[in-house]
Amino acid sequence: MDYKAKHRFADVGPRKLRLFADLVRGKNVDEALQLLAFYPNRGAMLVRAVIQSAYGNATDQESPDPDGLIVSECRVDGAPTFKRIQPRARGTAFGILRRMSHIIVTLSDPPEEVAEVPAPAAPVASTPEPAPAAAPGA
User: Fold this and answer.
1) In this structure, is residue 42 part of a structural domain?
2) What pTM, to 2 d.p., does this model score?
3) Which residue, of 2, 69, 101, 135, has the fewest CB within 10 Å?
């Protein structure tokens, strides 16, 4: 089963957050949280908070094995951009773009391991044995 959490309108640009989303995607929940705990970036803290929220949703919905969940989806999408103006010299203006993001995290159970069936062995072609070399002087 999938357990989701979202943080909409995060006040960090998507380019800064995607680095951390790529870092934790496909990892175990505990491993992902420990990886993000040691980054001093604000984006790492936001992604970590969303993963913790999804983990909380899993425990609240009584997941059979909440510690065995993996981060199956960690996506960062762009949100609306605030446009501001910075006054500049001689009455001109300079545009400022305040970018925001949507963070979406999905935790799921690890895929079932399928027992690998060995392939039938291909018959080995027998090569003729080389004839013994004649002794010199015989």
Assistant:
1) yes
2) 0.77
3) 135
Task: Identify any residues that bridge with 2 across adjacent strands, giving them in sequence order.
Answer: 108
Residue range(s) defining the domain that contains residue 32? 2-108
Q: In total, how many domains does the chain have?
A: 1
3-state helix/strand/coil string of 6-55: EEEEECCCHHHHHHHHHHHCCCEHHHHHHHHHCCCCHHHHHHHHHHHHHH
CATH number of the domain within which 33 lies: 3.90.470.10
Asked whether residue 123 is assigned to any structural domain, the reply reads no
Cβ(59)–Cβ(1) below 8 Å = no
Q: What is the mean pLDDT of residues 111-130?
A: 71
Task: Please report, as a single letter, which amino acid is at residue 73.
Answer: E
Please indicate, yes or no, if residue 77 is contained in any of the structural domains: yes
105's tokens: 């995290």
- Write out the two tokens for 45: 């803290």
